[in-house]
Amino acid sequence: MDGFDHRLGRNYVNRQGAWLIPALLGASVTAFLCWGAWVSAHDPKWPYLGHTWWRVALRPAGDQTLLAAIAVWFAALVCFWWPRKRAPALVGLTTVVAMVLIGGVLGTTALLPCRGGETRTAVAAWVLGLYVGNPPAAYQTPVCPGQPPLALQLGQIICLAATLIGALAAAAVLWQQPLGRFKARFVRDATILTGLDALTMPLLRKLAETGRPASIVVIEPDAGHPLLDEARGTGAHVMVGDPASARILLPIIAGWRGCALSYLYALRPDVADNELILATARTILDRYRPDPQRQPHLVMRIDDPRHAQHWRGWHAGTSSRYFQDALSSQESTAAALASQLARTGARQLLLCGDSTLALATLLELARQAWEHQELRAAAVIGRDTHPGAVPAAWDSPAPFTFERVLLLDRRSRDLRREYLATSARSMSQALPAVVPQPDSWQEQLLAMLDDMPPVAETTVVIADRLSDATMHEAGRVARLHPAVPVFVLASDGAGTSDAIFDLLRPLQRSLLVDGEVPSDAWTRVARHWHECFRLRHPAVPGDPRTRTGRPWGALDEFIRQDNILQLRSIMTAVVGRGRRWVPARSVAPGSFIELNDHDLEQIARAEHTRWFRRRLAAGWSADEMRPARRRRGGGAALVNRRVVPWTLLPADDRDRNIGYLRSQLTQLADVGFVPVVPAGGPATAAEFERIGTVQARRLGARRTWTRRSGDELSGDAGDWRVRDNSGDERTVRDMEFRASHQPLGGEEWRRTGTFIAWQVSETQVLRTMEGRAIAQPGDWVVEGYGGERWPVTDEQFRRTYRAVNGHLAS
User: Fold this and answer.
1) 125-182 confidence digits (pLDDT tens)
2) Pairwise CA distance, residues 56 & 47, whole Å
3) H/E run at residue 723
4) C-alpha to C-alpha distance for 752 and 755, rounded to whole angstroms
5) How far is Cα of residue 576 from the mean position of the Cα atoms in its chain?
């Protein structure tokens, strides 16, 4: 390893110093020209006294000598520039200084013998005149009667060129910012990136490699940022300015032909800075009408996966004009790590350390386990129900290999608790064997591996904070168990690199996944939906669905984009029904209100309308007898019988669309996102005081009871059975009961407190603390202190609640 590093160091030094050889040769040629100028100035006939090569080379008409001198110095410049091409400022400054010195030496040597009786100050003025293109008439005079020597001829060129290059360099610096802004106005399909650091530079390089660098605009507020030159080296346009300024963003997003934005990556380390950038971009994008063919992606860096997941859900579907997603370095690193772990084929993972990366790794492994489980189940259904399907449609992923994950850390129990509280229930059930080992991993890891049989298929991940002690223990484990893959968290960079020795691999925190730009969260969901659907409903030979039943990577771009737009359309339509998407685990118990049949029909209708209009614009037709646009290259005609408005869609197809929508909402819940009525209810909600008295007694055993509407609910031992003066019965959890009732003696209690409530105009299904309850049109939904909700009939509500403002709407 040390020898390898030394070789790298020697090669680097050799490249850095390669310019010295041509520079020394150039200095020799310059000295040769200076000597010739000095001698010939005193004796103009000297170059013609013989035919030796050095006399001939110094004659004033020696073009070959000038070309040779220029070629040598140009070679030195190229050798100096090549290893420093990412530092143009250094190369430019060095070039100008060198030209000034070389031109000054050549001019001074050639002019000094011609000063006659003048002072040396006159020679300095003559030399300065060379830099502004005003050479003195020093030769063909009584003092210097000969022709101007080669040194003066070359010096004139070099001095004037130094002035011009210096002026251009200064102009480039002065006009760099306005020029960058001007060029950015002409970018089409723009990708904007802001926030340069060790994590974002690999992402920028990958975007430049896989796309068009000229379409990338980097916005950086710090004109002296050390990575600006490297960013320019990728081919991207660089603008210096505030990325949260509408004055900076508007010309790029607006473009010349409408919205030109494809992606905006707000990747500054400070989440608040990124929020401001996206807020400005949203304000600009809201000026445009939704474009089904252009869906800008607004991607915001939030390294903490907990925050990223909540932000991702809360902003999903809030606009039909753009997608919004969070990019987390911890999530990307965990995804890359999970991919590496899968390639090891191990069945047991020893996850060491209590860190955010450890949590993100557990969440990613759980999600991959659930995705594999879903895909294999879909493949089984497709194979059983469609025996005549195309064999390729039966392809399913290999089984998920990990059977057990051991958490090694003193706080491993807390880590497992947080993982279970964060992960969607369906995913945590797909990765059931997560076992905490509450002890120092440094003290138990090596002993645990020593006790395992030699054939044990185990992989170790050390996700603890980077330190000398961590690297020391990782190296010891890898050396003593060379057959066990060991991944250890190292510095930030581009991801997992090659093994250091044996199977010890450094794991760098990165925004890339396996060296690639990660798909956004919603594209991943859409891809999973498509793969499950095609495996569950494989196409048979001759079925037109063979085109849409291909694996995700082989799909036509129009179809692939349609899957993504379908998800966006559904989530947007749900938000349009007064909901917001949040992580399922963050929903307060007893607060969820299901989407009703009317909601589902309206959402399905909105999605079908989007689907229909997009296909109509692309030339699709519902009638096989009508001429329709054919696919490029002479493929099949674009025909689908369902390319009709919702009102003309057959009832069976409408029901099928609604049923498919239900399954998609279920899968979104499995992924971990559910649509909730935000805390505080809709805009019509108001505050109400509870009034009246009740009889209450604490339950000693579980009790089932029935609402007057017929809903059967239940209370557990320790809850309170409550009856009011009208005989309405219900059960209330102990904490909620004591917070909203005041004892009057015996079983008599006064109802107290102020609650939020709203009246519903459609049937609503509530998942209350006591069970599933239905609010009929005209009933009220009441929200408690902890977010829990329950339905109350209009008659009962008017008896037991009073508006805070003293007025209750009729």
Assistant:
1) 888 888 888 888 888 888 888 888 888 888 888 888 888 887 777 766 655 555 555 5
2) 6
3) strand 720-724
4) 9
5) 26
H helix or E strand, kind and range, residue 31: helix 20-42
Q: Which helix (H) or strand (E) holds 570?
A: helix 557-576
360, 331 in Cβ contact below 8 A?
Answer: yes
Residues 407-421 have pLDDT tens digits of 999 999 999 999 999
Tokens (6 digits) for 42: 């005193």
What CA–CA distance (Å, rounded) separates 736 from 786?
Answer: 8
Tokens 């059960």 belong to 731
**DSSP string of 665-718, one letter each residue:** HHHHHHHTEEEEPPTT-STT-EEEEE-SEEEEEE-SS-EEEE-TTS-EEEE-TT
Q: How far is CA 485 from CA 99, 451, 461, 477, in A?
A: 56, 17, 8, 10
Phi and psi of 142, rounded to 5°? -55, -35
Task: Give the DSSP letter of residue 291.
Answer: B
pLDDT of residue 642: 87
pLDDT digits (tens, 9 = 90+) for 69-98: 888 888 888 888 777 766 666 777 888 888
Rounded (to 5) percent helix, strand, coil in the chain: 50, 20, 35
Which residues sit opposite 489 in a β-bridge? 507
DSSP-derived letter for residue 135 is: -
Paired tokens of 222: 């710090």
CA gap 224, 112 in Å, rounded: 43
Helix 246-254 / helix 150-184 crossing angle, nearest 10 deg: 90
Among residues 571, 583, 570, which one has the least CA distance to residue 609? Answer: 570
3-state SS, 775-810, equals: ECCCCEEEECCCCCEEEECHHHHHHHEEECCCCCCC
Q: What tokens does 661 get? A: 């929508």
- Locate tokens 């005079």: which residue? 141
**593's tokens:** 């209100």
Q: Residues for the chain: how many in total?
A: 810
DSSP tag of 724 = E
Phi-psi region of 223 (alpha: psi -120 to 50; beta: other; left: phi over 0): alpha
Is the CA virtual torsion 736, 737, 741, 745 positive or negative?
A: negative
**Strand-pair partners of 192:** 217, 264
